[in-house]
């Protein structure tokens, strides 16, 4: 599915729609160049989940956890990591929700994952003219409830 995102707000709205409809243990793999809008989409996700605090980029902290919304949000950014370091993070802890409360896992720079979960949604953001972006969304072994997505875009 390809979605056109003419401005920042459109990307945020896509995140809101996903935050309103996704279930616990959903994993969103965010791909795309620097500044493509990955963090912007996760900020919408936070809003859709009802998280009342600002979502900030975890580029330096690696992972930010938010427990204040409908479901926990685990926001990761792999930009600064080597594959060995990514493996050492034991990310399955988050997407299996075994040692942590199951929630939504959003991973920026998911291109750097040496392995993937069993079920995931890929959102690949690319640049268009000026402020426009394109989101290519693909699901693997899972579904996005369509109605909320359609209603908000
Ligand atoms: N259509 C759009 N969608 C998202 N962001 C947009 C759009 N148009 C302009 N922007 C701007 O581009 C920037 C995107 O920044 P953002 O931090 O979300 O990107 P990112 O993909 O997370 O970058 P990084 O790779 O550094 O983590 C913001 O300043 C945002 O306002
Ligand atoms: Mg970012």
UniProtKB/TrEMBL annotation:
Protein localization: Cytoplasm
BP-aspect Gene Ontology terms: tRNA threonylcarbamoyladenosine modification
Principal location class: cytoplasm
GO molecular function: ATP binding; metal ion binding
Superkingdom, taxonomy of origin: Bacteria
Gene Ontology CC: cytoplasm
Keyword annotations: ATP-binding, Cytoplasm, Magnesium, Metal-binding, Nucleotide-binding, tRNA processing
tRNA processing as UniProt keyword: yes
Family to which this protein belongs: Belongs to the TsaE family.
Protein name, entry field: tRNA threonylcarbamoyladenosine biosynthesis protein TsaE
Lineage, highest ranks first: Bacteria, Bacillati, Cyanobacteriota, Cyanophyceae, Nostocales
């Amino acid at each position: 599915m390809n979605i056109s995102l003419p401005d920042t707000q459109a990307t945020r709205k896509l995140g809101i729609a996903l935050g309103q409809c996704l279930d616990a243990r959903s994993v969103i793999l965010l791909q795309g160049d620097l500044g493509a809008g990955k963090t912007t989409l996760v900020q919408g996700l936070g809003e859709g989940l009802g998280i009342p605090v600002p979502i900030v980029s975890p580029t330096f902290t690696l992972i930010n956890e938010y427990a204040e919304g409908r479901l926990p949000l685990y926001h990761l950014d792999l930009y600064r990591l080597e594959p060995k370091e990514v493996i050492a993070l034991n990310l399955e802890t988050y997407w299996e929700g075994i040692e942590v409360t199951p929630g939504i896992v959003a991973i920026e720079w998911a291109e750097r994952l040496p392995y993937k979960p069993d079920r995931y949604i890929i959102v690949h953001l690319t640049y268009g003219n000026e402020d426009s972006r394109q989101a290519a969304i693909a699901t693997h072994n899972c579904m996005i409830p369509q109605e909320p997505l359609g209603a908000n875009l």
